């Protein structure tokens, strides 16, 4: 078993991150498996070295050890681009729309509200019929997932071990309707879904343990794994840690940051207690 924790260095880790990291770490260690770390710093306009350093400090303080080198996504742009030019080249198209174009096209002509999927507004297909881009010109500015070269009846699924209210099985036609042509590349860097799938494979992750907020996105990852010829790992989408009002913790919850708890004199055992994990790590 190999699990991972993959934070973005765009703010302090909070209790929700601590829960996710501890759960992935403890699960692997209990099985005699390994645990690796990945820094998801694709968006260099938001990533900061001081936040990355704080991730290392907070995890070490929590008693989390990671195996092997840390993988940093900002150093892997060429690897993601190679996947787009290679196995994915028949399944992408260049998109020239900005956000406003997508909003306008998705709302017209039914004059309704645009439909939303797990990756935002479901792309209305504006650029899907444009001439294909030569592989040597990929990636261009923005690239989206092309679905019309897949059998619409193809069914894909994944094994979910934690969050079992939903049936994790879907067809390509359901994916087209509910999720659509998601962005795989933005201007200068890979989009989250593409980088995440390539890196989970590169890091040999067998069990992906992450928050239930990503459950719906997993269909995107499973479809990309299919197109890239990767095996689909086992998934555990865990419960989310919330604040006193029941709202999911976000980067804005600085009062719930691990840094703040450390400054107040909390111990790693206190953090485990707060997120409902057993006191002693196995
Ligand atoms: Zn477009």
List keywords for this structure.
single chain; Rossmann fold; 2 domains; 4-stranded antiparallel sheet; 3-stranded parallel sheet; 9 helices; 32% helix; binds zinc ion
Fold and architecture overview:
Strand 2, helix 2 and strand 3 (71-72) form a beta-alpha-beta unit. The two termini are 15 Å apart. This protein has a 4-stranded antiparallel β-sheet with strand order 4-7-10-11. By secondary structure, the protein is α/β, with parallel strands linked by helices. The model has no long low-confidence stretch (mean pLDDT 92). The protein folds into 2 domains: 1-74 and 242-282, Rossmann fold (3-Layer(aba) Sandwich), CATH 3.40.50; 76-199, no CATH class. It has helices spanning 15-30, 49-62, 77-85, 99-107, 172-178, 192-202, 218-228, 258-263, 268-274; strands at residues 2-5, 34-39, 71-72, 92-94, 116-117, 120-121, 142-145, 155-157, 169-171, 183-186, 189-190, 207-211, 234-238. The protein has 9 helices and 13 strands.
Report the sheet with the most strands, covering strand number, pairing sense and barrel closure: 4 strands, antiparallel
Number of strands: 13
Succession of helices and strands: EHEHEHEHEEEEEHEEHEHEHH
Distance between the termini: 15 Å
Percentage of residues assigned to helices: 25-40%
- Total number of distinct structural domains: 2
Rounded Rg: 20 Å
Overall pLDDT: 92
């Amino acid at each position: 078993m190999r699990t991972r924790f993959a934070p973005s260095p765009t703010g302090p880790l909070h209790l929700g991150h601590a829960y996710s990291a501890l759960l992935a770490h403890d699960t692997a260690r209990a099985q005699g498996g390994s645990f690796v770390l990945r820094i998801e710093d694709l968006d260099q306009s938001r990533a900061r070295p001081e936040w990355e350093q704080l991730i290392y400090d907070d995890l070490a303080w929590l008693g989390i050890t990671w195996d092997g080198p840390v993988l940093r996504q900002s150093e892997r742009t060429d690897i993601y681009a190679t996947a787009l030019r290679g196995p994915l080249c028949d399944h992408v198209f260049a998109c020239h729309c900005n956000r406003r174009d997508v909003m306008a096209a998705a709302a017209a002509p039914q004059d309704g509200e645009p439909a939303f999927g797990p990756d935002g507004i479901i792309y209305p297909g504006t650029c899907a019929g444009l001439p294909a881009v030569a592989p040597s010109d990929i990636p261009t500015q923005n690239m989206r997932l092309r679905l019309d070269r897949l059998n619409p009846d193809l069914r894909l699924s994944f094994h979910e071990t934690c969050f079992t209210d939903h049936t994790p099985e879907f067809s390509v036609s359901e994916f087209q309707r509910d999720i659509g042509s998601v962005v795989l590349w933005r201007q200068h860097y890979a989009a989250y879904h593409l980088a995440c799938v390539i890196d989970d494979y590169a890091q040999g992750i067998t069990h992906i343990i992450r928050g239930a907020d990503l459950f719906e996105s997993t269909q995107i990852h499973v479809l990309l794994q299919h197109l890239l010829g990767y095996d689909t790992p086992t998934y555990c989408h865990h419960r989310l840690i919330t604040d006193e009002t029941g709202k999911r913790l976000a980067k804005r919850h600085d009062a719930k940051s691990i840094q703040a708890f450390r400054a107040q004199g909390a111990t790693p055992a206190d953090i485990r207690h707060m997120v409902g994990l057993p006191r002693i790590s196995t």
